Amino acid sequence: MKQINIGLLGCGTVGTGVAKLLIESSSVITSRLGAILNLKRVADIDIETDRGVQFPQGVLTTDAHTVVNDPDIDIIVEMIGGEGIARELILGAIENGKQVITANKALLASQGNTLFQAAADKGVDLAFEAAVGGCMPIIKSMRESLVANQINSMTGILNGTCNYILTKITDERMPFEDALSEAQQKGYAEADPSLDVEGIDTAHKIAILTALAYGMNINLPNVFIEGISKITPLDVAFAEHFGYRIKLLAISKNKGNQVQARVHPTMIPFDNLLSSVNGTVNAIMVSGDAVGDIMLYGRGAGMMPTASSVISDAVDIARNLMAGTSQRIPALCVQKEHIQNINIMPMDEIETHYYFRFAALDKPGVLSTISGILGRHDISIQSMQQKGRKTNGSVPVVMISHVAKEADVRKALAEIDHLDVVSQPTMLIRIEDEKLD
After folding, report:
1. Do 292 and 423 reside in the same domain of the chain?
2. Which of 29, 46, 350, 372 measures 20 to 30 Å from 339, CA to CA?
3. Are 263 and 156 members of one domain?
4. Segments forming the whole domain that contains residue 413
5. What Å distances lie between residue 133 and 272, 383, 416, CA to CA?
6. How far is the C-alpha of 249 from the C-alpha of 42, rounded, in Å?
7. Which of 293, 235, 240 is nearest to 265 (CA)?
8. Is 397 exposed, middle or buried (0-12, 13-18, 19+ CB in 10 A)?
9. Does the active-site annotation cover 205?
10. What is the reported pTM?
């Protein structure tokens, strides 16, 4: 029986899961593949720690370059992360004619165009199912299952840490800081959680998916990013009053000659399926012209769910090798000569509905002053709510707008926040609700 050798770079949480599946599920994989996926070498800076996996003698090494340069290894699996040594090793593996698998969304989002071009030039595959959505097969769905569809939009919850925190704020009215602390205690958030809670991790993922959906190069710098650190139990309560829940959404929309790609806290209606996705779970809804709406749902991180996606890539590549082929499916969904230069719409041009919470002094004429400023900037109000205790003489005033332009909203809020009768910066949350207007 044919044997295909794998070299694993990085044996942290997910790398250990990959090794575990390759060793402990080898009979299942072999029965489905018709060949043996053999874990030949594993490189990590720490080869002494017991990872709960029984590695064969001589598999472990601290020298990743020896793995990349091993002529007997067919597939390199990069699980190191980051944008430094990981990039160097991936490019080295490609130069050596090896197939590559990575879960490194940060590297792909920032330098994927270069890496995919290098792989294409060398005639090898660079697979990345595990880079977006953990165990959800969103990359395979975009590149294969939905190949006949024009993608109209994608809306997703793509970061389990943020979703866990927002679930805690929603269900227990827990302040953000306390919810974050609990997420860290449970191992759902890093000691430095900024990549997650500031929306950067989610932006990496939607940048990759946007390129796949619309046949364009990856364009991370132009993705709008806003995190969840300002969300309060008060905003959650007001959202529920209006029939919404707050989620950190990755939103991508096809606008013809340009696309939207943005990440920010978003109010969505109770009847939107994404509103009921709680805890550390991820989900994404894709709208195509042929299929309509479809939704994928599952664990977006963790040792075994992510490792499962890595192994799916390994099996796909192994099948290609057994058939004597490679690059059967274009990395970015379309043939390279059809990749288009499509611009991401500037955030100032986005038009949507908005939630505003003003901290207004309880004085006559305050509401008319605020409404007047909004009106001068072409922002009309659909509904309003004023209730709650005074805090330092201020009361929360909440308004839901009709469709407005982001640039106009920013100008209006800058003017309102300078008023003497407004005691703190206005809270703004965007709304995605097709039933409005």
Report:
1. no
2. 350
3. yes
4. 348-431
5. 19, 36, 39
6. 36
7. 235
8. buried
9. yes
10. 0.95
